[in-house]
Design brief:
Helices cover 83% and strands 0% of the residues. It is built from 10 helices and no strands. Helix 3 (72-103) packs antiparallel against helix 8 and helix 5 (128-135) packs across helix 6. The longest helix has 45 residues, at 2-46.
Length: 276
Amino acid sequence: MSTATGGGERGASRVARGAGAVALGLLRKSWFVILIIAVWWVVSATGVVDPYKLPAPGDVLSTLGTLFTERALLEDLGATLLRLVEGWAIGVVAGVLLGLLTGGSTFLEDGIRPVIAGLQAVPTIAFLPLAILWFGFNGTAVLAITAFGTFKPMALATYGAMHQISPTLLMAGRALGAKGLFMQRTLIFPAILPSLVTGLKMGWSFAWRALMAAEIVVTGAAGLGGVLELGREIGAIDVVMAVILVILVVGIVTEQLFFTRLERWVNRRWGLVGAR
C-alpha cells in the first residue's frame, strides 16, 4: 500500500512540475501581450482617450464574439487565409525558381537581379491598379498582388543564399560529376535551405501586408480587409480593432506553430550552431 501511495505521490508531483513548466513557458512568451492589454485597459478606463477612438478591451472582445457568432467574420477569415496561403505558395515557388536560375548563371544574374532589387524598393500596392486592369476588380487581382508581394523578397533571399554556398562544396560536387538538375537537387537546394527558412518568414510577412492593402481597396472580395474598410466607413472602431486582434492572433499562432518549429528542425537537421 505504501509503495502504491508513494508512486502516486511521485506521479502527481511530476504532473504538477510539468504543469508549472508549461504555465511558466506561457507567461514568458505572453508577458508583453499581457502588459499591452493592461495598459490599454488602464488608458480606456481612465478616459484619457475618447471611447470612439480607443474602446475598452471588453468592448472589443464583445464585438469580436458577435462577429464570430454571426459567422460573417469566420467566413471572411477563411477567405483571407485561403488567399494568403495560395498567394504565398505561388510567390515562394516563383521566387525560389528565379533565385536558383539567377544565382546559378552570371548572364541571368547581370540582367535580372538589378530589376528584382529595384522592384523591392517599389511598394507592392503600387501594382494593384495594374492587377485590377488585368484581372478585374475581384479576388484574382488580390491574389496576384499577394503572390507578387511574396515573390520579390523570396527571389532575393534565394539569390543571396546561393552566393553563401561554400565554393569548396561546389568544387567538390563538380569533381564528383554532379551537374544540372541533379546538382541543384542534391547539393544546391540542401545547402541553401537554412537560409530559405528566413526567406519564407519574410515572404509570409510581405504577403500579409500586400494582401491586407489589396483587400481594403478591392472591397468586393471577401476577406478581413473588407471588414476593416467597412468598419472605417461606418466609424466602428471596435470592429476595426477586433479584426486587427484576429490578424495579430493568426500571426502569433503561425509563427509559433509553423515557422519557429520549421526553423528549429532545420537548424537541428543541419547541425547549425545555436539550434534549440
